[in-house]
Description:
alpha/beta; 53% helix; binds guanosine-5'-triphosphate; binds magnesium ion
Amino acid sequence: MILERSNMFNIDTINNDLSRVIGKEHAEELKSLMRYYRLCQSAVNEIGTKLENLDGEYQSEYNHNPIHHMEQRMKAVNSLFNKARKKHIPKTIDAIENNIFDIGGIRVITNYISDVYTIKKNLLSQDDVTLIKSKDYIKDPKPSGYRSVHLVVSVPVFLSTGPVETPVEIQIRTIGMDMWASLEHKLRYKTSVEAEKVEHFENKLIEDANEIFKIESNMQEIYRDLSEPGVFKNE
Length: 235
Ligand code: GTP
Ligand code: MG
């Protein structure tokens, strides 16, 4: 099941936003970036289909769905240019293509911790998926307590002119990790916390993240004991 989180590819919105930032007078640049947004959307679609197929295979072979649900999003034009500014990347198509790999993003929410690695391994073993970047914040959580596996991969998108390797950012995490990350994000950005309360609040959030991880590890143990052979073959 794929949910659209926000900012899915809407040709008019993206065109309007790009015209505003780049300026209508730079018609060629505008056209190239629109083309690139479309490529990134196609690459997200390709990866989404691959993941749905993997989940379906596990469902029918092992009676187990590694994937709880997925969310797709395209980076909003203003976020793209804010990021470019922060990272001192020029506003040119070449610089963006070579430095920003998360215009198309897909978040995979798994049922168990081991499913994160099942998904990662099976996706990366496909011939047309190329790993560009990989970070394991489950093995090494961020100081905030954040856990997730982040991948940037590229897949060929087949245009009328031939295939174009296109990057997609994939975040893979469990339901518990996702629940924590969503609430933590809201707490951090949507509330105003007095400075002296911040440390206490951060420490509590780290404890909560650890607690959730412990609970998910325990539940995985129970599931492992109860499940049929084969489900955990990819660990
Ligand atoms: P970017 O190029 O900005 O993606 O840099 P990076 O690859 O070093 O980024 P990182 O691996 O830190 O991943 C950034 C994304 O991970 C963010 O957009 C968030 O979705 C998520 N993320 C990272 N750290 C946290 C955190 O502490 N809390 C929450 N809620 N999300 C986080
Ligand atoms: Mg990122």
